[in-house]
Each structure stands twice: as C-alpha cells, then as structure tokens.
Amino acid sequence: MNDPVLAQVMGFLSRLVAIPSVYPPGDTREVCAYIADTLSGWGYTAERLSRDPKIVNVVAVLGRGRPQLAFNCHIDTVGVDGGTAWQSDPFTVAMRDGRVYGLGANNCKGPAAAHLWVAEQVARRGGPARGSVAFTFVGDEEALGSDGTAFLRQERHLAPDMLVVGAQTENGLITRERGVTWIEVVAHGTAAHAGQPANGDNAVIRMARLLGHLERTLFPVVSARTADGLQSTISVGTIRGGTNINVVPSSCVAAIDRRLLPLRESIDTALQEIRAVLAGAGEPEGSFAVRRLTGTNGFSAPQDGPLVSAFSAAIETVTGKAASFADSVGAFDGRFFADDGIEIVNFGPGEGSEGHKSNESLPADQLAASARIQLRMVENLLGLNRPA
Fold first, then answer.
1. Residue 263 and which of 123, 314, 339, 344 are 20 to 30 A apart at CA?
2. Closest by alpha carbon to 262, among 312, 328, 169, 325?
3. Where in the chain are the domains?
4. CATH class label, 4-177+299-382
C-alpha cells in the first residue's frame, strides 16, 4: 500500500469494521465510544447522544460560530446473512484486486473512515480559520428509525449551515433528492362466514376498488410530473387483509410509497391529494381512512452555492477532472434537514449497488480520493489555521 492517505484511512476503516454495529439490534454503543474517544483526543468537543440507550450518536465540533459545516455518516450496518457467502471474515478488512472488503466497507463505514481522516487532518492543521466544523456519526439508519440523525435534528444537537452526508456516490455530487412519504390506507368492512358472504362487507374488495380508482385517476397524473430529469412516482408496496380464507375480511391495509419532486411537491400536499382522489372513489363515508406513516420533503442545493462550489473546485484539484453530478434513487439522512433551508450534498466513495451485499466492497482508489477531496473542500470553504 504505497498511498499514505489510503493506509491511514484503511486504519480507521479496519477499526470501524472490527466493531460490530449490526441491525438488528443496531447497537452502536461500542463503535461510537471508539469514535468519540478518538475525536476527543484530537481536540474536538465530542458528545455521545441518545434517546434509545443502545442507539448512540456522536456529535464532535471544532472551531466556533458560523458558518458551521457538518459531516454526517451512519455507522450501523446490515447483518452478515449467516456469513456463508463471505469469502473472508466480514469483520476484518481485506484488500483484493484494488477493492476493500468488509461488512459496511461500502455502506457506510468506508465513508465514515474518510470522515475520520478528514477530522484528524483538520485538527492537525489547527481547525477551521472561520466558523466551525462538526462530525456526526449516527445509528438507526438501517432501521429507517428516528433515533439517529432525525433525533439530532429534532433536539437541535445538530443545526448546521451546510451538510455533507456520507453516501455511495462514486465521488460524484448528489445535490438534490426527491422527498419520500409512506401513506397508509385502511379499508373497513364487516366480517361474516365465507359460506354467506352477502352477510358481510368485504374490506379486501373495497380496497381493490380504492386502489383501482387510484391507479386510474392519480397514477397517470403523478407519473407525468417531472422536473429537470427527476420524476414523481407512486407505488403500492404492501397489502394486508383478512384473518382466514373462510372469513369475509373486516379490514384491509395498503401502504403507498410516494417520491416527491424537490421544492415542487411536499409530504402534506401528497397526503391531501390521495385523500381527495379517494374521496371520489364512491365508497361510503367512514368506510376507509388515510394517514401518513412517515415522510420528509426533498431538497435541491444550488450548483453555485458555497458548499457545492467548494466541492467542485476540490474535485477538480484532486482528480484533474470536473465534478460529476448524479441523482439519488433512494433517500439519505440529509432529508431530515430538507425544510431547514441549508445546503446539503451527498458525497462519498463506493457504488450504490454494493450496499447490503455479501462480500461488500468499494474501490480503494475512490476511498483515498474521497478523503483528499473532502479535506480540500474544507480548506476551500472555511480555510485552515495552519498550512499543509
């Protein structure tokens, strides 16, 4: 390993991968203790914060005042799937053919290791010349829960001006992300014996009518909405109904996934739209209900904003190439800040297709380049008190 930066980042990654933080149960106490102690040793004010005792998050700050640039990365991983398909110990980092292997190496301990390297270099160079920098490492991401980044934002433990979310972008910039909301539709009916179905009111059949009405009326409208290459979508993900084959079901529940155009659609308007369309389905009043399960609005950072501009310049300096921009299919933790009017960028090494796979890996050269780019971005944006 001839690249000193890669060797240093790999050292952090080896330690992170060796400490299990698998969901379930999503226990991040040990790995966040290591991270907090490491950052404290470099002079950061590091706190371990939690709402659930087992889901610990770290917020570490260096410098004072505004603007504050924050880095965010989740530190929990998926399980090992029995370990049968792994060609090496999932909790030991291995290098093969220019790729780095280990559980979470791609999603998301590789990006987290790059953040740790950047944090160390910023501290070694005396901290930011203006404003402050925060490094946050969170749990509860793999569970899509509210005790990680969402908790930090809700309790104002993290309120930055600019946010970099560690993600698998192959070192491209994701500066916009669709919103997402999950909406539940519950159809009510009356149970009866299947031998006399006319004595009941079949909730599954009612749900079929409701979803058929949505498909005919709302689905074409939603799919026709686009903005600069992004598309609005609606999808029925699950349907659950009935207790036994010989019983007319009294209840049926469907869950709908809506992806929302940033700045043009909101979780509130999406819910209202579905309610309004279903109100015209012809079902009796009170025979169904619609509610939001969860949701966050989308965001879009201007490509000439301070953070994106600093990133673009850093990428060109480090790689000799212009920054590339991409769009996200899924949703990262920056979504919790979508309504705060801050600049958000998803950035990091690795490919989205590698997440959650056995023999998970990422390219070693991307890992090292990611670290270099982000350090240069901090220097471009905030300056550093001591020269390199």
1. 314
2. 328
3. 4-177+299-382, 179-296
4. alpha beta
